């Protein structure tokens, strides 16, 4: 069983603002800063997403909302797409704490749209995850048993504040909502060490390794550290499609050890890599699919 725990679909300009797309291409949201890739990455085709998911058994597709950056991939858009492949795709809703009634939006997303979790992105929303508006959302997610994929790590837009992105801010959330399942996206880069020590001590916190392989030295070191802290069992697979694909991410994970070939530096054992790639993260997150 391979689960891609982190994928996006979106259209430009319908869902993404000029500011978001400009910053993505100029500040480095695109792997390798390849500006020529901006169009396909910022304007995904649903058929391309579906084809890219061929190597995986299940995939989580997330909505995305940031009033601050005028980005809005609607919950309805994601729900409509996942309904075309209900045996394989799982949709996550997104709400912004500055929406008029995010709690009602969550209820609508779950009851009417059939979405199974939340994608939250406090840094993109220019808010701390410990803001009262965010805490209300976390409380609702815990009550409904909705897992949260949370972008708690650095990102590219200029007008957002990195201080809101620190993974350790989630410790207060985890203590206040101990049954809430949260997955910290991208190992909380560049605070991977903070993420590892946080998920080590908070039982319902996990982290995905998506969109990191194009910084292979950082990912290699992070996985070695995850072994040293004994938390590799809490790392889950994800691609962050369209920034990367599951196939490229799997290939890159197994090629990481090439970095240290011919040296005395440690290698990441195949069992650890297999554990990440083949982990049933849906079971970890209490997500059951038909
Ligand atoms: Zn993402």
In short:
The protein has 290 residues and is α/β, with parallel strands linked by helices. 37% of the residues lie in helices and 13% in strands. The model has no long low-confidence stretch (mean pLDDT 94).
Structure description:
By secondary structure, the chain is an alpha/beta fold. The strands form two sheets. An eight-stranded parallel beta sheet has the order 1-2-5-6-7-8-9-10. A two-stranded antiparallel sheet has the order 3-4. It is globular and about 55 Å long. The relative contact order is 0.14. Zinc ion (ZN) binds next to β1.
What secondary-structure arrangement, pairings included, does this model have?
Layout lengths: L2 E6 L9 H11 L9 H5 L3 H7 L5 E5 L1 E3 L4 E3 L1 H8 L6 E5 L8 H10 L5 E4 L11 H13 L3 E3 L19 H7 L5 E3 L7 H10 L3 E4 L7 H14 L5 E2 L9 H10 L14 H8 L3 H4 L6
Parallel strand pairs: 1-2, 2-5, 5-6, 6-7, 7-8, 8-9, 9-10
Antiparallel strand pairs: 3-4
Bound molecules: zinc ion (ZN).
Zinc ion (ZN) binds next to strand 1.
Output the keywords.
8-stranded parallel β-sheet; binds zinc ion; TIM Barrel; 12 helices; 13% strand; 290 residues; 37% helix; alpha/beta; two-stranded antiparallel sheet; 10 strands
């Amino acid at each position: 069983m391979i689960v891609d725990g982190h994928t996006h679909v979106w259209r430009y300009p319908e869902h993404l603002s000029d500011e978001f797309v400009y910053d993505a291409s100029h500040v480095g949201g695109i792997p390798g800063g390849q500006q020529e890739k901006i169009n396909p990455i910022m304007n995904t085709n649903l058929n391309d997403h579906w084809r890219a998911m061929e190597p995986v058994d299940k995939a989580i597709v997330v909505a995305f909302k940031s009033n601050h950056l005028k980005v809005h991939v609607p919950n309805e858009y994601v729900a409509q797409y996942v309904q075309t492949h209900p045996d394989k795709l799982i949709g996550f809703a997104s709400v912004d704490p500055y929406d008029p009634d995010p709690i009602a939006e969550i209820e609508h997303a779950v009851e009417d749209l059939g979405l199974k979790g939340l994608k939250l992105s406090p840094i993109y929303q220019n808010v701390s995850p410990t803001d009262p508006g965010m805490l209300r959302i976390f409380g609702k997610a815990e009550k409904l048993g909705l897992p949260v994929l949370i972008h708690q790590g650095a990102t590219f837009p200029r007008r957002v504040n990195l201080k809101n992105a620190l993974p350790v801010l989630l410790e207060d959330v985890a203590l206040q909502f101990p049954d809430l399942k949260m997955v910290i996206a991208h190992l909380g880069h560049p605070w991977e060490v903070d993420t590892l020590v946080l998920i080590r001590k908070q039982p319902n916190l996990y982290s995905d390794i998506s969109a990191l392989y194009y910084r292979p030295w950082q990912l290699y070191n992070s996985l070695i550290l995850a072994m040293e802290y004994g938390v590799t069992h809490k790392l889950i697979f994800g691609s962050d499609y369209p920034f990367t694909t599951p196939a490229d991410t799997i290939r890159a994970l197994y090629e990481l050890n090439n970095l240290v070939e011919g040296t005395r530096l440690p290698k990441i054992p195949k069992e650890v890599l297999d554990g990440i790639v083949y982990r049933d993260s849906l079971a970890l997150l209490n997500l059951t699919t038909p």
